[in-house]
Amino acid sequence: SQTIHQWPATLVQPVGSPLSLECTVEGTSNPNLYWYRQAAGRGLQLLFYSVGIGQISSEVPQNLSASRPQDRQFILSSKKLLLSDSGFYLCAWSVTGPLDEQYFGPGTRLTVT
Amino acid sequence: RKEVEQDPGPFNVPEGATVAFNCTYSNSASQSFFWYRQDCRKEPKLLMSVYSSGNEDGRFTAQLNRASQYISLLIRDSKLSDSATYLCVVIGAGSYQLTFGKGTKLSVIP
């Protein structure tokens, strides 16, 4: 069966510090991968998606970036965090394209202070 | 009109009650629809897909009304464990036009 992992589970970072969140999927090959952010009182916002290694599409311009160095690894990064980057970051995968159901990892709760 | 709208609730219902949520969407070309459940401070989990013909999974029934552009979720015989936030997801035509509603909070009371 497929499983998706994210780490760390929680993170407190000062403004201006870098960020690296990691997501890995097991039990499937060539999944579509997604990064979302859920801010307090707001819906999930799609940040990035990837259909394959090295292929990243950005949905929202911001100071975040994503990379997919391996088939089942998806990384979310920032060089300098802003207060507004605080939120619940969720990685998800789907078997095929955007019309498919998506399965979420446990998430990383980021607080920027 | 917002892309996807849900009544935020909370819906407070007694155990055994039937409760229904609606989710309206603005993009008439939307193609796929889902309901997710999210427990407090947890990740969303897929509850069910929503098909044009309607679909049922145990106590849960999902329906799609394309003419009026809404999807619905009906929960029968509510259990305490049904307490959660229910998110609707609408996926539009084109690449990755995926929009989550903000969710409807349900509290089932003993």
Model description:
The complex is a heterodimer of chains A (113) and B (110). Helices cover 0% and strands 58% of the residues of chain A. Chain A is built from no helices and eleven strands. With 113 residues, chain A is mostly beta strands. The mean pLDDT of chain B is 92. Chain B is mostly beta strands. In chain B, strands 2, 4, 5, 9, 10 and 11 form a six-stranded mixed beta sheet that branches. Chain B has a five-stranded antiparallel beta sheet with strand order 1-3-8-7-6, with no helix packed on it. The chains are: A mainly beta (113), B mainly beta (110).
**Helix proportion of residues of chain A, in percent?**
under 10%
Radius of gyration of chain B: 13 Å
Q: Hey, roughly how much beta strand do the residues of chain B contain? A: over 45%
Biggest interface pair, counts: A-B, 22 and 22 residues
What's the helix count of chain A?
0
Largest sheet: number of strands, sense, barrel closure of chain B:
6 strands, mixed
| Element string of chain A (H = helix, E = strand) | EEEEEEEEEEE
Number of helices of chain B: 0
Shape of chain A: globular
Number of E strands of chain A: 11
Task: Find the count of extended strands of chain B (DSSP E, 2+ residues).
Answer: 11
Helix-strand layout with pairing:
The complex is a heterodimer of chains A (113) and B (110).
Chain A (H helix, E strand, L loop, with lengths): L2 E5 L2 E4 L5 E8 L5 E7 L5 E9 L2 E4 L5 E7 L2 E6 L8 E8 L8 E2 L3 E5 L1
Parallel strand pairs in A: 2-11
Antiparallel strand pairs in A: 1-3, 3-8, 4-5, 4-9, 5-6, 7-8, 9-10, 9-11
Chain B lengths: L3 E3 L4 E4 L4 E7 L6 E7 L5 E6 L5 E3 L2 E6 L4 E6 L8 E8 L6 E3 L3 E6 L1
Parallel strand pairs in B: 2-11
Antiparallel strand pairs in B: 1-3, 3-8, 4-5, 4-9, 6-7, 7-8, 9-10, 9-11
